[in-house]
Amino acid sequence: MEHYLFKQLAFVRSQTLKLMEGVTEENADVIPEGFRNSIRWNLGHIYVVLERFAFQYIGLPQHLPRGFKEQFEYGTSPGNKTDSTPVPTLQELELLLKEQLERIRASLEHRLQEKIIPPYTTSAGMTLETPEQFLSFNLYHEGMHLSVIKLYKSLLSR
Which of 8, 67, 94, 104 could form a disulfide linkage to 54, CB 3.0–4.6 angstroms apart? Predict the structure, then answer.
């Protein structure tokens, strides 16, 4: 029987993908006044953080295309990009976001309770010790960025 967490991750991811509808390549890179990131950055960041949460701390390889960590990891901003690594298209991001959850389920469905040594404390102060806790925390993380994307889309449509 599938763990409820995979259903919740799929639901949240479907909302992320739905928000991508109607976003143009041009609008994806606009940084609204007073903000430091774009829609494209938020989508790439969602992908990179879940890769880290799902795979890095349990010792599994991450699937990070060249330049993703440098472009989309915590603390980065498109305004600070200094290398010539190509920025992924929205179509590329969509494909990565769609296939990511199946890789996670296949890799972690029987490892959800394994202890991570040492535990990881997020920038928000939450300590995570198992893949299940990392994936659960990702629901909050992705939801937060979903809200930002929704706000940006609203600001860009004015």
Answer: 104
Dump pLDDT digits (tens) for 80-95: 767 778 899 999 999 9
pTM (global) more than 0.85: yes
88: its two tokens: 């992924």
Six token digits for residue 99: 């296939």
End-to-end CA distance of the chain: 46
Q: Which helix (H) or strand (E) holds 62?
A: none
Q: Which residues pair with 120 in a beta bridge?
A: 128
According to DSSP, residue 102 is labeled H
- Amino acid identity of 25? E
Structural contact between residues 133 and 58, judged by C-beta atoms closer than 8 angstroms: no
Identify whether the C-beta of residue 43 lies closer than 8 Å to the C-beta of residue 16: yes
pLDDT score recorded for residue 1: 67
| 72 φ/ψ angles, rounded to the nearest 5 degrees | -125, 0
d(CA 91, CA 21): 11
For residues 58 and 132, is the Cβ–Cβ distance under 8 A? no
Q: Please state whether the peptide bond connecting residue 118 to the residue before it is cis, i.e. omega within 30 degrees of 0.
A: yes
What length does the chain have? 158
Residue ranges with strand state E in 18-158 = 120-121, 127-128
